[in-house]
C-alpha cells in the first residue's frame, strides 16, 4: 500500500538524490507524467526524437548506437564464460516458495 500511495502522489513529488542532475530529473519527470500521459516525452508528434533531443542526451552518439559502433563505457575484466567475480555475493535462498494463499479468490478462474 505504501508504494501505491507514493505512486498516487505523482512524479513531481519525488525528491531525487543530489547526485541526480537537474537534466536527468527533468527527463525522468517528463517520461513519467501522470496527469496527462499523452503529454509524456516521446508520446507526442515527434515521438522518440523528442527524447533524443533532450538535454540529458546532449552529445550522445545515436548513430553509433544504431550502427553498433559505439565503444562501451565500461568493460569489466572477465576470466572466462563462468567468471562471476564482477557480481556481488548473495546468500542462497533457503526458505523455499511462500505458502499457497488459500482465501479462494481465484476459484472461478
From TrEMBL:
PROSITE patterns xref list: AGC_KINASE_CTER (PS51285)
Segments forming domain AGC-kinase C-terminal: 58-109
Feature: compositional bias, Acidic residues: 98-109
Keyword Iron-sulfur: no
Region of interest (Disordered), ranges: 74-109
Keywords in alphabetical order: ATP-binding, Kinase, Nucleotide-binding, Serine/threonine-protein kinase, Transferase
InterPro entries reported for this sequence: AGC-kinase_C, Kinase-like_dom_sf
MF terms (GO), sorted A to Z: ATP binding; protein serine/threonine kinase activity
SUPFAM superfamilies: Protein kinase-like (PK-like) (SSF56112)
Protein name: AGC-kinase C-terminal domain-containing protein
Protein source organism: Hippocampus comes (Tiger tail seahorse)
